[in-house]
């Protein structure tokens, strides 16, 4: 009788960028970026959107787990705005 080892594949996590009404970009992570964006639009979640409402989900990047998504979020948050805008532009181009 052989032992069977099951590999549990977790739900992916996502790094996302949301454009605020003032043109700024907010970076976050979620296991469901569409749901999280809807919450941001309703004023729930991040305080960031209290002063400038969430306008559009402009970038989404999938990662295998929460830890990887957190690491990538830290990297994205350190980028200059021009580099974040380049991510957004490349995402738009790839989607079409």
Topology summary:
Blueprint (H helix, E strand, L loop, with lengths): L12 E8 L4 E6 L2 H9 L12 E10 L2 H13 L2 H15 L1
Antiparallel strand pairs: 1-2, 1-3
Organism: Pseudomonas putida S13.1.2
Protein name: GIY-YIG nuclease
Family: Belongs to the UPF0213 family.
Descriptive key words:
96 residues; alpha+beta; GIY-YIG endonuclease; 3 helices; 39% helix
Please explain how this structure is put together.
There is one protein chain. 39% of the residues lie in helices and 25% in strands. The chain has one domain (13-95): GIY-YIG endonuclease. The protein has helices spanning 33-41, 66-78, 81-95; strands spanning 13-20, 25-30, 54-63. Mean pLDDT is 90; it is low at 1-7. A three-stranded antiparallel sheet has the order 2-1-3, sandwiched between helices. It contains three helices and three strands, in the order E-E-H-E-H-H. The chain has 96 residues and is α+β, with helices and mostly antiparallel strands. It starts with 12 loop residues before the first strand and ends with a helix. Pfam families: GIY-YIG (PF01541). InterPro entries: GIY-YIG_endonuc, GIY-YIG_endonuc_sf, UPF0213_domain. Belongs to the UPF0213 family.
Output the CATH homologous superfamily: GIY-YIG endonuclease
CATH fold naming? GIY-YIG endonuclease
**Whole-number mean pLDDT:** 90
Q: Indicate the overall shape.
A: globular
CATH architecture: 3-Layer(aba) Sandwich
Total beta-strand segments? 3
Number of helices: 3
**Secondary-structure element string:** EEHEHH
Number of domains: 1
Q: Any low-confidence stretches, pLDDT <50, length ≥5?
A: 1-7
What is Rg? Answer: 16 Å
Biggest beta-sheet profile: 3 strands, antiparallel
| Cα separation of the termini | 51 Å
Helix content: 25-40%
How much of the residues is beta strand, in percent? 25-35%
| Sequence of strands across the biggest β-sheet | 2-1-3
CATH C-level category? Alpha Beta
**Sheet/helix structural class:** alpha+beta
């Amino acid at each position: 009788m052989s032992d069977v080892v099951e590999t549990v594949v977790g739900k992916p996590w996502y790094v996302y960028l949301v454009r605020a009404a003032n043109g700024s970009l907010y970076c976050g992570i979620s296991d469901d970026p569409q749901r999280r964006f809807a919450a941001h639009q309703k004023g729930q979640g991040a305080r960031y959107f209290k002063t400038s409402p969430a306008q559009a989900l402009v970038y989404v990047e999938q990662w295998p787990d929460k830890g990887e998504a957190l690491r990538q979020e830290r990297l994205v948050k350190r980028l200059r705005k021009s580099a974040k805008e380049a991510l957004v532009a490349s995402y738009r181009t790839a989607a079409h």
